[in-house]
Design brief:
alpha+beta, 18% strand, 436 residues, disordered N terminus, globular
Length: 436
């Protein structure tokens, strides 16, 4: 599967290099839902002081300027730029994936109006402000800051038929080929429109979900929704690569922005086909259930053989540390390959797939328990690439032919979306398509 044992990203608060998607702390004061945790911080400090040393310290603490208890809430990602947010930023602690279909009778005009509304709302929410919505805002996130909120929009293949834009549909949006291991539910696959929401606070993420869903009322209706999570920022003593629900370190071999070929692998170049996708990318979305009961019965050594990496620190079985390049030719004292022929890390390696690679930015999920008592849990796999036929498809075909991990997973939903470049000042997302 393209749930790579190395997919996902570690958490960091590093700032980008002016691409329009870097994280920063918004210093602007003024009325907004971005009261952060200041008032709560002051009240908490006063309460602790009262409990420890009486009212005098409590009064002094309450008169000091409010201070945020954590930088998590204050972290802000810019909405506008050459790229949409939510692609190159570290995956947040909470995520929502949402697909919608245009309502009967809604076409290009109605879709453009919806994207205008969504753009205004997403920009306000990502700045930590209360959006000027058509309906009364519920105030779900009034006391929180932006919390690294990102909102990303995409178009499915059927969107172009419903809006009379079939002639402008990208060739890269061709249907994904069938794979023998697929057990896809059509009701949870596809969709005209796609929204990806991520934030490091659950209420901030839900607030964005609710606001955007309300804005779509009358124009588009929800086809499917999936909710996910990752490790919270600061949960480890130092920044570390995330783990998936199998316990494996997940994200080591993701392409890095510092890589020379990063942009050409992930983003559509200027002057590409079609031109309106310049700066955009293609998102493959897969719901991959993990057979955790079966997996947890496998001894540690067997799990590591399936993956080709040590569970404790993510180091390849060929030796070294987590970031040591995988040596696919190395053999052990017995003469056998250190990394088995069907190990997941070998099957998915770019060297095994003609250089094919994707930027994987996924969320774990748990949707309760199935009728047999097994957990309905796994990975909401999201992979970004400039062309799915050169990224996702060749790797998944290789996995389909023989991957040790395939015995422990099920691909249950699938979708592909064209995600246009970012909205520049004065634009709404998708304007170059809808008004071009």
């Amino acid at each position: 599967m393209t749930h790579h044992p190395d997919n996902g990203t570690g958490k960091s608060s590093s700032t980008g290099t002016g691409t329009g998607t870097e994280q920063s702390t918004d210093p602007r004061p003024g009325p907004s839902r971005r009261r952060l945790l200041g008032a709560a911080g002051a009240a908490g400090a006063a309460g602790l002081a009262l409990g420890a040393a009486g009212g005098a310290l409590g009064t002094a603490a309450a008169t000091e300027p409010p201070t945020a208890l954590s930088t998590v809430g204050s972290s802000r990602v810019p909405f506008r730029g050459d790229r949409q947010p939510g692609i190159t930023e570290p995956a947040q602690a909470h995520g929502h994936l949402l697909a919608l279909d245009l309502a009967p009778g809604a076409g290009r005009k109605e879709a453009a109006a919806l994207l205008r509304r969504w753009t205004r709302t997403a920009e306000a929410l990502m700045a930590g402000e209360t959006p000027a919505a058509r309906l009364h805002d519920t105030g779900i996130a009034l006391d929180a800051g932006p919390s690294s909120l990102t909102v990303t929009f995409g178009f499915g293949r059927t969107f172009f038929d419903r809006t009379g834009l079939a002639a402008r549909r990208p060739s890269a949006l061709a249907p994904l080929p069938p794979f023998s291991a697929d057990e896809l539910d059509a009701r949870r696959s596809g969709g005209d429109l796609w929204v990806q929401i991520g934030a490091d606070d659950a209420l901030v993420a839900f607030h964005a979900l609710r606001a955007l869903q309300r804005e779509a009322d009358g124009t588009a209706r929800v086809r499917w929704q999936m909710n996910g999570f990752n490790r919270s920022p600061g949960a480890t003593a130092s920044p570390r690569t995330a783990r998936n629900l199998m316990g494996q370190i997940d994200g080591t071999n993701n392409p890095k922005e510092a890589d020379e070929d990063f942009r050409q692998r992930v983003f559509v170049p200027a002057g590409g086909d079609p031109e309106w996708m310049a700066g955009g990318s293609y998102a493959v979305v897969r719901r991959i259930r993990m057979l955790l009961d079966d997996w947890e019965r496998v001894p540690l050594a067997g799990q590591e053989k399936v993956m080709g990496r040590r569970k404790s620190d993510g180091a390849p079985l060929s030796g070294g540390s987590e970031t040591t390049p995988v040596d696919l030719d190395k053999r052990g004292p017995d003469g056998d390959l250190a990394i088995a022929a069907d190990a997941h890390v070998r099957v998915t390696a770019p060297a095994s797939n003609g250089g094919a690679a994707m930027l994987r930015r996924s969320f774990s999920y748990h949707d309760g328990f199935r009728d047999d008592g097994s957990p309905d849990a796994g990975l909401l796999f999201v992979a970004w690439q400039a062309d799915p036929m050169r990224g996702f498809v060749p790797v998944q075909r290789k996995l389909d032919r023989g991957d040790a991990l395939s015995r422990f997973i099920r691909h249950e939903a699938s979708a592909l979306f064209a995600v246009p470049g970012g909205a520049r000042e004065g634009e709404y997302v998708g304007q170059r398509l809808l008004e071009g």
